[in-house]
């Protein structure tokens, strides 16, 4: 009897070790969340066009490379806007480039990307809005010392260009730096 139970147990273990799990990427339009519109209605968010992630990756790389021409070429042509972490709003691509030129000199920012998530929605006006939310570790030089921040950027991408983005950041805790 013991031998039968042992044989059954070994067979079960061997069969489970040889089984493979097929992982498939869902491409259906299942909602992944929602956005609350100004009137309080909830509009579904869906996973969106992954090419928008490549746009933001190029944008961040251009920032790390201090490539103002590439940044300018990826900024939206009309109504470009940045909402900074300190409440500052930058309107227009030229103002953004001027801000960056000074900031690059003063703070020498460097981004390390941790994640990028693309999502999209059609708002109550019937307009498609495509967003990339990304998380980064950013190092800034402040008063000669490197300070590391956690940063989340929500960037609206349209026609292969960054139209606007919000930046939220916080100083990283000591245990996050290990």
Walk me through the structure.
- The chain has 178 residues and is α+β, with helices and mostly antiparallel strands.
- It has a single domain, classed as Nuclear Transport Factor 2, Chain: A.
- It has four helices and eight strands.
- It starts with a helix and ends in a 7-residue tail after the last strand.
- The N terminus is likely disordered.
Largest sheet: 8 strands, mixed
Helix content: 25-40%
**What coarse outline follows from CA principal-axis ratios?**
globular
Instruction: Kindly give the count of domains.
Output: 1
Number of strand segments: 8
What secondary-structure arrangement, pairings included, does this model have?
Layout: H1 2-18, E1 31-36, E2 42-47, H2 51-64, H3 68-74, E3 81-83, E4 89-91, H4 93-107, E5 110-122, E6 128-142, E7 145-158, E8 161-171
Parallel strand pairs: 3-8
Antiparallel strand pairs: 1-2, 2-5, 3-4, 5-6, 6-7, 7-8
Helix pairs in contact: 2-3
Features:
alpha+beta, disordered N terminus, Nuclear Transport Factor 2, Chain: A, 178 residues, 40% strand, single chain, 4 helices
């Amino acid at each position: 009897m013991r031998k039968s139970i042992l044989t059954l147990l070994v067979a079960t273990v061997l069969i489970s070790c040889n089984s493979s799990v097929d992982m498939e990427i869902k491409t259906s339009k299942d909602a992944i969340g929602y956005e609350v519109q100004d009137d309080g209605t909830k509009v579904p968010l869906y996973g969106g066009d992954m090419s928008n992630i490549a746009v933001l990756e190029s944008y961040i790389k251009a920032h790390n490379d201090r490539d103002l021409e590439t940044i300018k070429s990826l900024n939206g042509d009309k109504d470009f806007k940045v909402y900074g972490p300190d409440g500052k709003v930058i309107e227009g691509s030229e103002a953004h480039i001027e801000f960056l030129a000074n900031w690059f000199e003063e703070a020498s920012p460097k981004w390390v990307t941790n994640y990028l998530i693309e999502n999209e929605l059609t708002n109550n006006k019937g307009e498609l809005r495509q967003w990339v939310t990304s998380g980064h570790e950013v190092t800034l030089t402040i008063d000669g010392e490197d300070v590391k921040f956690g940063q989340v950027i929500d960037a609206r991408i349209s026609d292969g260009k960054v139209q606007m983005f919000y930046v939220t950041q916080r100083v990283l805790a000591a245990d996050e730096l290990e």
